[in-house]
Task: structure prediction
Amino acid sequence: MTKLINTPNLPQNDVAYCLIGEKYADEIRELNQLEIECLTLKGNPLLEDEINSHSDILAFNFGNGQVLLNEGTIGEDELKKLGIKPVYYQNKISSPYPNDIPLNAAFTGRHIICNSNYCAEEIRVFAQKNNIEIINTKQGYSKCNLCIVNENAVITEDKGLACLLKKYQYDVLLITSGDIYLSDAHYGFLGGASCKISQDKMYFSGDLSSHKDYKAITNFLKLHNVQPVYNESRKLNDFGGIIQLIEKT
Result:
């Protein structure tokens, strides 16, 4: 039995279905081995190649099957047969920044964290209707930069985000930048290299133990009763994470 995930990014049970960028074959294979079905998002040719099929750039999950998507990334019928109600963002998502960040917002359950000057109007309207406070940050890649451990705890490389979220009573682990592959030109972020796959498990794409702050990260996860799941045979990789859609019951 399965059900729609209520709180985006924070499944309460094992994830059963997710959205992920189409070109991340290693991640898709590993998630399939964890019994997670992957619906793939087509790359957006208007974006830089290194992020053009990142789910945190192409989609935002409101919860309960309502998903805002970059138009052309996935067919409507494929989602509707799972009970997902897609809404397609009508404006263009494209490089360079900030034209690539309208959907890059981090939903922690009690807040939506984003650069509200550039986030999609649909996200602002949703927050207002549901009495969810938006935390405005200068960091446009908010979702990329936040590994959401639970509704009260996050990991980030961004000092500004760390300082801001502590004011909102989040338990924040600030880690060192680097050690995460994005492309030959740029390093990635832990938020984009990770995703919750159940209430007590966090999937990491690649060898988490290669990160210089490995001990601090695993200790922080342990503090919050979360176990890391990762493959030591390949380097830690920012793949844009997943959009968790459906969980087992």
Notes: The chain has a mean pLDDT of 97. Helices lie at 25-33, 55-58, 76-80, 121-129, 159-167, 214-223. Residues 214-223 form the longest helix (10 residues). The radius of gyration is 16 Å.
